[in-house]
Design a protein that fits this description.
Elements lengths: L7 E2 L14 E2 L5 E2 L17 E3 L10 E3 L4 E2 L1 H12 L4 H4 L8
Antiparallel strand pairs: 1-6, 2-3, 4-5
């Protein structure tokens, strides 16, 4: 199983890295570390598609898609695909007579 060793989490605008503290507040009032739950509020289960970089601990305040905070996802997905499809699977795929 691939590891997340190449996965880094930081603000796409200023590169501030989450420090593990609860800097994000949901509209339901719950405050938590959004990156522990992939932006799902533990209280109301709302899935946030955006994340604001918190200014108080040194961030920039820019709002961006939550997924954009995860750097190295493409490499992790590539590793998962390679593990799921053995090298011999390519040889087993063939085309119809009219495909080329």
């Amino acid at each position: 199983m691939p590891t997340a060793s190449h996965l880094e989490i930081y603000c796409p605008a200023c590169h501030w890295e989450p420090d593990g503290r609860a800097h994000w507040q949901c509209t339901c009032g719950y405050v938590w570390n959004s990156f522990e739950t992939a932006a799902v509020c533990p209280k109301c289960q709302y899935r946030w598609k955006i994340s604001q970089c918190p200014t108080q601990p040194g961030g920039c305040g820019v709002v961006s898609p939550h997924v954009d905070w995860y750097h190295g996802l493409a490499e992790l997905i590539e590793e998962l695909v390679e593990e799921a499809a053995p090298a011999t699977a390519e040889a087993a795929v063939c085309c119809a007579a009219n495909e080329s």
